[in-house]
Write a structure and sequence with these properties.
Carbamate kinase; 10 strands; alpha/beta
């Protein structure tokens, strides 16, 4: 949503498409898990009185809208893209099939995974951890609004310092909010490294993939 209060910002979508194109040109296989918080958050709706299951399904449908928007922007600059959904919507996107997703990526296509896991009560983080584990991803790049993991919330504690690298066990013992517990446990059990970085800084996606000092890396050791 860029600097808007909600919805889809065309300039932000186009910038992301260009940055993903840089990865494709460098030969990186890319799978994207996209959220829907710019449109609706199921948990927020539930806190305001909406049934939680209904709210989560609405949130999953919002991710489909975002996935379609990103696909359109990427295809406009020549990136072959497939959207795979955990909720069957045959006229809009392919169903998620693990082997098909991996085949798309082998052929140089970007796969956008939408509709979360297809189940309520699971976050976008969990969907990312699950898909990464299923396709054998080398790492999860968690693109967010902060530039890494801190000892405390930097917006509330001016003495908070950023970690450049931390282990799963340290993150757990310090109760750092890397991901929700289900997603984090999946990554830890399957030894999928997590890199948390600021999405809004230009070229950060490429810098993260190239191993430049960006964000905070969470690993087993």
């Amino acid at each position: 949503m860029g600097q808007q209060s909600g919805g889809i910002d065309a300039d932000t979508i186009k910038r992301l498409a260009r940055e993903i194109d840089d990865l494709c040109q460098a030969g990186v296989e890319v799978g994207l898990v996209i959220g829907g918080g710019n449109i609706i958050r199921g948990a927020t709706q539930a806190s305001e009185g909406l049934d939680r299951v209904t709210g989560d399904h609405m949130g999953m449908l919002a991710t489909v809208i975002n996935g379609m928007a990103l696909q359109s922007a990427m295809e406009a600059i020549g990136i072959p893209t497939r959207v795979q959904t955990a909720i069957p919507i045959q006229s809009v996107a392919e169903p998620f099939i693990r082997r098909r997703a991996m085949r798309h990526m082998d052929l140089g296509r970007v796969v956008i995974f939408v509709a979360g896991t297809g189940n309520p009560f699971f976050s976008t983080d969990t969907a990312a951890a699950l898909r990464a584990s299923e396709i054998g991803a080398e790492a999860i790049l968690k693109a967010t609004k902060v530039d890494g993991i801190y000892t405390a919330d930097p917006k509330k504690d001016t003495t908070a310092t950023k970690y450049d690298r931390i282990t799963y066990s340290e993150a757990l013992s310090k109760r750092l909010q890397v991901m929700d517990s289900t997603a984090f446990t999946l990554c830890m059990d399957n030894r999928v490294p997590i890199l948390v970085f600021d999405l809004m800084t230009p070229n950060n996606i490429r810098n993260a993939v190239l191993g430049l000092p960006v964000g905070t890396l969470v690993t087993a050791e």
